[in-house]
Amino acid sequence: MSSVFKRLLIFLLPILALLVFQYLVDPLDIYPGEQPITPVASHYRFVKTNDYLYNPDNKRDYDAFIFGSSRVMRLETAQFKQYGLKAFNYGVNMTRAEDYYCQLRLLLEYNRKPIKLIIIGLEPELLSNIWPVHRQLLQVPELSRYLIEDLPLPEAGHEELLQIISDSMRYSFTALWNHLTGIKPSSKYEFDPLTGDFMIKEPRKSAVKVSSNLMQSLYSIYNGFTELDPSRIAYFDLFMDLCAENDIRVIGYVTGNHPMLLDFLRQHTAYEERLAEAMEYWDSIEYEGFSWRDFTSVEAYGGDPDDFADLAHIGTYNAELVVRQLMEEYVQSE
Amino acid sequence: MLFNSLQFALFLPAVVVVYWLLRHKPPRWQNLLLLAASYFFYGWWDWRFLSLIIVVSLTDYLVGRGLAVEERPGRRRLLLAVSLLVNLGILGFFKYFDFFADSAVQLLGLFGMKASRTTLDVVLPLGISFFTFKSLSYSIDVFRRKCEPTRDVVAYFAYVAFFPQLFAGPIERAKNLLPQFLKPRTFDTDEAKDGLRQILWGLVKKIAVADFLAGYVDTVFLTYDHQDGLVLGIGVFLYAIQLYADFSGYSDIAIGVGKLLGFKTNPNFACPYFSRNITEFWRRWHISMMSWFRDYIFYPLGGPFRGKARWIGYTLVTFAVSGLWHGPDWTFVVWGLLNGLYFIPMILKKKPPTFTGVVAKKRLLPSLKETGQMLGTFLLVLLGWVFFRSDSLGQAFGYLARMVTHPIMPGQVGYRFYLVPILVCIGLLIIEWIQRRKRHTMQIERLPTWARWSIYYILVIGMLLFGTFGGSEFIYFQF
To answer: How far apart are CA A291 and CA B96, in angstroms?
Structure first.
C-alpha cells in the first residue's frame, strides 16, 4: 500500500513545481508582491493608464476624454481635432460606474490642462447589482486607490480557486514567452473582452455573423441583474459632482447593439426594464452640463444597421456618425 | 462537495488513508467511517436533507428485517408496500409535486375548469432519485428472495449513503454491493492503481471535455432561433458528447473511488455511441439505471412474454417512466417515449439483430455496414437529446423545425467558433474507440512505465492548463 502512495507522491512532484512556477511568475497579479516579469494579461485599464501616465510622448494635455466600455473604443480621437479638441480614448472593457469615478479622479490630478469635455458611453450594465468590482481595476493601483470603502459594491461570487490557478499557469508560459521574445501588447492590438486576449485588429470583411458566444455573454450579464445598484449610482453621482465642480461638459450616449442582439436581449433578458430604470436615473441627474442621447438603435443617429464590427460593437462609419452628432451638440451648447 | 473540487481533493485522500489504517479492525469500523464520511459529504451540500437518507435507510432496513422473519405472503406484500410507499412517496413529493400540481391545473383548464396553482417550490434534494432507487432495490430483492436481508444496520446505512455513488449513481444493487460491506476488505495494489487511473480519466472527461463543451452547448440552445441547421446539428452533437463525458466521467470517478476503498462495482457505460442499434445503445448507456427499470418495471409488467402488442406497450411505459425519472418535465417524457418508439421496429421483426460483443472486435476499423449502423443509431440518439436538453417542448420542436427551415446560412453564421470543440469531441471518440475493448478507457497497465507516466502527465498538465474549473455540477445531479 505504501508503494502506491510513494509513487503517487513522486508523480505529484513535477505538478507541485508547476504550481510554484505560476506562483512566482504570477502573470495575473493575483498573489501578493511584485511580479518578476511584465504581466502578460495586460488589459486596457493597465495599458491605457500606463500610456497616459508614463509614456514620455504623452504630454497629458488633453481637452476631452472618451469614457466607456469596449463599445466606445471605435470612437476616433482624430475626429475631435476638427472641433479644436485634443482627445484621449479612455474606454476600457466591461466598465462599471466606479471605473468612471476613479478614471476622472486620476485625470483631475494629472491632466495638465482643464478638461472641457467628456464623452461617456452609457449602458445599464455599468450600474449592475451583480457585477463585482472588475479585477482589472484592482490590478491598477493608480486607479483603485480612489475606490471608496464606504460604498460597498456587489461581492465577487465564489471564484473557483482551481480555475484561477489554471489561468495563472497558462498565462505564466505566455508571460515567459513574451518576456523572452520581447512581444508586448501595443496599439495595433485590440483587446477581446470575451477571451481576455489581445488580438490584432482586423477590418470586417463581410456581414456581421451570428455570434452566439457574445449573445451568451450579454445574456449572462443580465441574468440576475435585478435592479440598479445603489452604490454604483452613488459613484455615478460623485462622478457628476466632480464634473460639475470642474465645469466639465459631459455628453453621454446610450451605446447600441446590432438589431439582432437587441431583439435577443429584449426577448430573453430584463434588458428593457433595466434600460428604462437607467434612463430614468440619467434623466434625474441635475447637473446642467450633462446631457445624454439615446443611441440604442442605429436609427436614432441615422446609422447603418450593417456597419457593426460584431453584434455588440459598432463599425467605423457608425462611430464617426456618433462622434459627429455628439460634437454638434457640444458645439451648440458652447 | 463535487468530485471536481478542491474540497474533494482533500477529502478523498483523508478518507482513504484513515479507512485503510482501520483495515485490521472488524469491517464495522471501516463501515462506520464510510457512513460518517458519506454523511459529511452529503451534508456539505445541505445537512437538512440527510434526514431523508436516514428515513429511507431505516425504513428499508426494517422492512428487510421484517421480511427476514415473515413468511406469510400477505404480510410480506404489506411490508413491501411500506417500502414502496416511503421511497416513492419521498421521491414523488420532492421531485414531482410541483409538476403534477401544474399539470393538473393545465388539464382542468383544457376542460374549462379553473383551479388555483398550488405549487410549493419544493427544493430537490441532490441524489434523491439514486438513493431511493438503490434502497428500494434492496427491499424488492429481499421480498423476491434474491438478496439476503442484513442484520448489520451500519453496513446497510453505509451501503445506501456510500458517498462515491450518492449523488448520481451508479445505482448499484444491494445483492452486489451490500455483501462487500459485510466482509473484510483487503488493499489490492493493482485495483487501487486501476482506480486512480479511472478517476483520472473521469476527471479529464468532466473538466477538459464536458465543462469545456458546456459553454458552447448553452450558447447554441440559447440562441437556436438565430442559428442555421448546421450549427444546430453541431450543437446537439456537442451536447451528446458533453452529456456522455459528464455522466460517464462521474461514473468513472465513482467506480474508481470504490476501487480505492476495495469495492467492485459494475460499469455504468460501455462506449454507447459505438452501438449498432438502439437496443445495444440502451445496454451500454447508464447501464445501472436501465437494468433497474428492466428488472423492476418492464419484467414485472409482463416483459416480452405476452405478445408483441403488450411488449410494445410495456416498452413505451418503461421508457416514459424512465424519462419522468430524469425530471418532472414533459420534455423528458417525450424523450423517453421517443426512445420507446425506436424499439418498435425491432420488436416487430421476426429476428431482430442482437449485438452483444464489441463492434469490430478484432479489427482496427468498423466495416461499412457497421459504420452505417453506428451512424444511424447515433442520429436517432441525437434526435432524442434535443428533447432531453431543451427547456420546453416548444424549444425542442422549434430547434428541430429550424434545422429544416434554415439548413444553412453561409456568411451569416460563424462556424469557426465550433472548430475546437468539435476537435475535442472527435479526440475523445478516437481515444474511446481505441480502448473500446477495455472495461474502462484508462486500462493501460500493460504499457511500459514511461508510456503510462507520459500519458498521466499529458492528461494532468493538459487538464490543469486548459480545463474548465467552474465548479459546475454534474448534469445528472439535477435528476
So the answer is: 54
